[in-house]
Amino acid sequence: MENPLIEAPVPPVPQDAEPGGVRWLRANVARFSRPEDHARRRALVLAELAPMKSLRDKAFALAREMRDAPVERTVWTVPVAVLAAELGLPDVSRDIAEVSGAYHPHTEIGAGAEAAMRRLVETCGDADERTAARIGLLVQACDATAKLLGKALAAHRPGEDVDELLDRILREDPPVRVTRRWVGGEVVEVDLTKRPFGAGPKRCPGETQARRVAAGILDALLC
Fold first, then answer.
1. Are 75 and 146 in contact (CB under 8 A)?
2. How far apart are CA 43 and CA 133, in angstroms?
3. 191 φ/ψ angles, rounded to the nearest 5 degrees
């Protein structure tokens, strides 16, 4: 196999999960889907992302409203709050942050994450694939974008353009350095250093939106 990032499936996750919990989320998002389910579930995410407009301006405005809050709170709250509003949801950033810590199959699931998932499913509606797509979209925007923003703020050079700053961080010090694939019946780690949003059919569907939100927050914090 020449390129596991593109050619190999993701490690399998259990499918017999009780609806509405973290294990159910893992089993129903495109991110961890079997090949036969991936395209359908990815299409749900793309449909949610497509109508989103003016994300940079909206992220800037909310970050400016939070200018008296600690920076760490801003970078963890604004990306999720802006995208949630675009999905017609309230600010669910606290619950999304809780779930993000238990999202990946190699992490443990605590009671706090399960309780947060129950609240998120109730807010979104039914425990169906669209709800999983919406929650998964927000979870994946949460941790990675907060880390990207933290790295960008720490590395900013005087006079550096925000878009150039983001390009440099994604090139030199991306927030997500590895992903996992299933090769020969084993989990292998695949380097993402030169492809921070992945590649092929599993490439991050929200790259454009993530960059716009991050840029808007940096516009506000660095001005």
1. yes
2. 9
3. -70, 130
pLDDT digits 0-9 by tens, 140-161: 999 999 999 999 999 999 999 9
- The pTM assigned to this predicted structure is 0.95
3-class secondary structure, 106: coil
Which residue type sits at 205?
Answer: P
Beta bridge partners of 182: 187
Q: Which two tokens stand for residue 96?
A: 């999304």
**Residue 67, C-beta contacts closer than 8 angstroms, at least 6 positions apart:** 220
- With H, G, I as helix, E, B as strand and everything else as coil, classify residue 12: coil
Lowest mean pLDDT among 7-11, 154-158, 168-172: 7-11
Q: Dmax over Cα atoms in the chain, in whole Å?
A: 53
pLDDT tens for residues 29-79? 999 999 999 999 999 999 999 999 999 999 999 999 999 999 999 999 999
Which residue in the block uniquely carries the two structure tokens 């992302």? 49
Which DSSP letter does residue 190 get?
E
Please identify which residue in the block is written with the tokens 């973290």: 22
At 185, list the tokens: 């019946």
Alpha helices in the chain (DSSP H): 4-7, 22-28, 35-49, 55-65, 71-86, 93-100, 111-124, 129-155, 162-172, 207-222
DSSP secondary structure letter of residue 2: -
